[in-house]
Specification:
The chain is α/β, with parallel strands linked by helices. The protein is built from 14 helices and 23 strands. The protein folds into two domains: 270 residues, 3-Layer(aba) Sandwich (Aldehyde Dehydrogenase, Chain A, domain 1); 184 residues, Aldehyde Dehydrogenase, Chain A, domain 2 (3-Layer(aba) Sandwich), CATH 3.40.309.10. α1 packs across α6.
């Protein structure tokens, strides 16, 4: 029997257990007989303690030269690299994704930390010519202050890493509230920050519910900025409340990502990528392939190929060798997807799946069989709403123009993909596809450390995450005018 985890907060460099009477037990999503541990859900007062600790630590961290802050990130990255296998096993046990997916997530996060650490020596401004003689103008970047981070359960390592790294390198201090569903993966990351020698109070971790601890983080006047990843409902509420206080806000929210397959596409290539995009991570990622829009001339053949591949997927505990599809993260998420399966069977033709998966030792977990619906109307709920599970709606269209129109007929705009051999239509799609990231002849999932991540429409507000644009959100630009004439200026100063 594994040692039980105890969820604790990390405030001002000290591990403390919340005094709250509300406790959350965390079960392995693949095996409910496996209890990981429990965490108390912190109070508003405890969140205020964390914010105060971050406020006290701000002057010292802000005064630390940026290259020194970068050196800390490099040291943290080396420590995490040595512990990544241990962290991957914990993520699989706590969140449910396969070991390969957990390892891939961690590696992407490490790549981002490494890239952002290098940015510490490139936090540059610019010099600008003045229209006045003997005057010098330059710009510089300064930290925002105390930054609040609210992170989701589906990428409990990568998303915190890609928020923490730029926040720290820019000289901010942080209060971080992770999802209640992944307290121990988050605690593992915070422990490595402590082991890497981060000064006390620079990062503070507080477990808690969004409506109490999270709301206090959003509302507190000492928090200058907020970066959130999660649902549209929560993100919209956070954005509205924070904007009323003129806080800087970044929200990365939902997606309903379409793959468009044209009649000239390499269907073998497309089928393989659609399967991995739709059913990898059990569909529980914001960039998952959640709509297939296929030209009618290729639809029947492509659908047969997809159904053949779905039958070969191995479903089970992500810690087991060869497993490709794990469970839903929680009972609530399981029930949510089940409800959409019921909706889908009223709206379209069920081709496979459509029910819980209880075979091959999966009876004790929140498993759902990979599901494909065909002949889905564009206005159907399963074609419009984010399901966040292993469900693929297939929408048939007559031609390229109809495919693009249908792809854009949702309120989200995160990722998209098109499969075609026609370079003219590929570039036309690049211009007209309403999304923040478009993949040509590759799946909707995936990204690189030095490249911006984010979407448009209802998917996101604020600057993009990762890449050089991450620095834009976590810093303020200041303009400095230096007059070295030693004389009073005459004439209009406008």
């Amino acid at each position: 029997m594994s040692t039980l985890w105890l969820g604790r907060n990390w405030i001002a460099g000290t591990w403390v257990e919340s005094t709250s009477g509300e406790r959350l037990e965390r079960l392995n999503p693949a095996d409910h007989s496996d209890l990981l541990g429990s965490a108390r859900l912190s109070t508003r007062a405890e969140m205020r303690e964390a914010i105060a600790a971050a406020r006290r630590a701000l002057p010292g961290w802000r005064a630390t030269p940026a290259p020194r802050r970068g050196e800390f990130l490099f040291a943290w990255k080396r420590l995490l690299d040595a512990k990544k296998e241990e962290l991957a096993r914990l993520i699989t046990r706590e969140e449910g994704k396969t070991l390969a997916e957990a390892a891939g997530e961690i590696q992407r996060g490490l790549n981002i930390v490494e890239y952002i650490a290098g940015e510490a020596r490139r936090l540059s401004g610019e010099t600008l010519p003045s229209e006045l003689p003997s005057n010098f103008i330059y710009t510089l970047r300064q930290p925002l202050g105390v930054v609040g981070l609210i992170t989701p359960w589906n990428f409990p390592a990568a998303i915190p890493l890609w928020k923490l790294a730029p926040a720290l390198v820019c000289g901010n201090t942080v209060v971080w509230k992770p999802s209640e569903l992944t307290p121990f993966s988050s605690q593992f990351l915070a422990q490595t920050l402590a082991e890497a020698g981060l000064p006390a109070g620079v990062v503070n971790l507080v477990h808690g519910k969004g409506e109490e601890a999270g709301d206090e983080l959003v509302s507190h006047p000492d928090v200058a900025a907020l970066s959130f990843t999660g649902s549209n409902a929560a993100g919209t509420a956070i954005y509205a409340k924070a904007a009323a206080q003129l806080k800087k806000v970044q929200c990365e929210m939902g997606g309903k990502n379409a793959v468009v397959v044209l009649e000239d596409a390499d269907l073998e290539l497309a089928a393989g990528h659609i399967i991995s995009g739709a059913f990898g991570s059990s569909g529980q990622r914001c960039t998952a392939t959640s709509r297939l829009i296929v030209v009618e001339a290729a639809a029947d053949r492509l659908l047969r190929m997809l159904l053949e591949r779905v039958q070969l997927l191995k479903i089970g505990n992500g810690a087991d060798a060869g497993v490709q599809v794990g469970p839903m993260v929680s009972e609530a998420q399981f029930q949510r997807v089940i409800s959409y399966l019921s909706i889908g069977q009223r709206e379209a033709r069920l081709c496979c799946g459509g029910q819980p998966y209880r075979e091959n030792g999966c009876a004790k977990g929140w498993f759902i069989a990979p599901t494909i619906f065909d002949q889905v109307p564009a206005e159907a709920r399963i074609a419009q709403e984010e399901i966040f599970g292993p469900v693929l709606p297939v929408l048939r269209v007559p031609d390229f123009e109809a495919a693009l129109e249908t792809a854009n007929q949702v309120r989200f705009g995160l990722a998209g993909s098109i499969f075609t051999r026609d370079v003219n239509r590929a570039f036309a799609a690049a211009e007209r596809f309403e999304c923040g990231m478009l993949h040509i002849n590759s799946p909707t999932v995936g990204g690189e450390a030095h490249v911006p991540f984010g979407g448009i429409k209802a998917t996101g507000v604020g600057e993009r995450e990762t890449g050089s644009t991450a620095i834009d959100f976590y810093s303020e630009l200041k303009v400095v005018y230096v007059d070295y004439t030693g004389q009073k200026r005459t004439g209009s100063l406008y």
